[in-house]
Specification:
13 helices, globular, EmrE-like, mainly alpha
């Protein structure tokens, strides 16, 4: 597959599958079971499936050092990130607005990546980020005016998720290893399983309820395992390795639109005029930011980030990519 086509496939898969996590969290909050328990079973099942994949397809055992590093990343990008999201959803923040608040991550990621990784974002990129942030703010105000809106402090929880996933993303790129993608995903899923097992035990007073056999429970669990865990985080790791932190973070701005379509069709959640205006601004801002990242060319990393994979712009030729591939990319 041509490098540009592969990059487009990874970006598209990331946007679609990442947005499925917000819908899955909304589905989980509607079940008659503690959400942390469902998420604990979700990550345990996903880790089991990936472990079988690694055993059958790779037959390799990663080093303990690489596993520890990836588990730290997973505890931030999966565990810490999703705890804030699912609690916000359970408190009444709509799925679409939760996704929009989480889409503030590119602002923080661009700041951190520029300092730690040398990934450049020009003036146009910062303008796009600012416009997108204004759009997110309008959507939050619109959502807070609903009759059954969540308390104001519930909207701060996705912001904590933003900080967690940004730190994990930077660590994933800055301390990139050469382990295969399935093995890295397995380590991250194991870490997330541990975090949600602990959360479930706390929520249920020291016990863990077994999975229910009801169709709605099994359907939600399947959605979270296949689309959100294997798809969302698989594409997330692949996007970080191939596209870098800044472009992957800019793509996050595109997930609220997909989430809104699903939420409107499945739950009847719809934004008002201010919310729709905010959604449009967020989309325009994301487009400006993404174009700015693509035009910036290859990133120039400082001495402190030598192990991070190099990010290639879409304007470079396939020959250039083949001559100097990322050491951490399996593609």
């Amino acid at each position: 597959m041509p490098p540009q086509a592969l990059s487009l496939l990874i970006a598209t898969g990331f946007v679609v599958c990442w947005s499925s996590g917000f819908v899955g969290g909304r589905l989980a909050s509607a079940l008659d079971t503690p959400v942390p328990t469902l998420f604990a079973w979700r990550f345990l099942l996903a880790a089991l499936l990936v472990a079988l994949w690694c055993r059958l397809a790779l037959g390799t055992v990663p080093t303990a050092r690489d596993m520890r590093r990836e588990m730290i990343v997973g505890s931030l990008t999966m565990g810490g990130y999703l705890l804030g999201v699912i609690i916000a959803l359970d408190l009444g923040v709509s799925a679409g607005v939760t996704a929009l608040i989480a889409a503030l991550q590119p602002l923080l990621a661009a700041s951190v990546a520029g300092r730690w990784l040398g990934e450049r974002l020009g003036a146009g990129g910062w303008l796009g980020m600012a416009v997108a942030t204004l759009g997110v703010s309008l959507c939050v105000v619109d959502d807070m005016q609903r009759a059954l809106g969540a308390p104001w402090w519930a909207y701060l929880l996705p912001l904590l998720s933003v900080a967690s996933v940004t730190l994990g993303s930077v660590l994933a790129v800055r301390q990139a290893s050469s382990m295969p993608l399935p093995v890295a995903l397995l380590a991250q899923l194991i870490a997330a399983s541990g975090i949600f097992l602990l959360a479930a035990l706390i929520a249920e007073g020291g016990t863990l309820s077994p999975p229910m056999l009801e169709p709605s429970y099994l359907a939600t669990l399947g959605w979270l395992v296949v689309l959100s865990s294997l798809g969302g985080y698989g594409f997330f790791v692949a996007s970080l390795r191939r596209l870098g932190v800044t472009l992957t973070s800019a793509l996050v701005h595109l997930t609220p639109a997909v989430t809104l379509v699903w939420a409107a069709a499945m739950f009847g959640e719809r934004l008002g005029p201010a919310g729709l205006t905010g959604m449009a601004l967020a989309g325009v801002g994301a487009g400006v930011a993404i174009r700015s990242v693509r035009r910036s060319g290859p990133t120039h990393r400082g001495p402190g980030a030598r192990r991070a994979p190099r990010t290639w712009s879409t304007d470079e030729t396939p020959d250039a990519t083949r001559r100097a591939p990322s050491r951490a990319s399996p593609y």
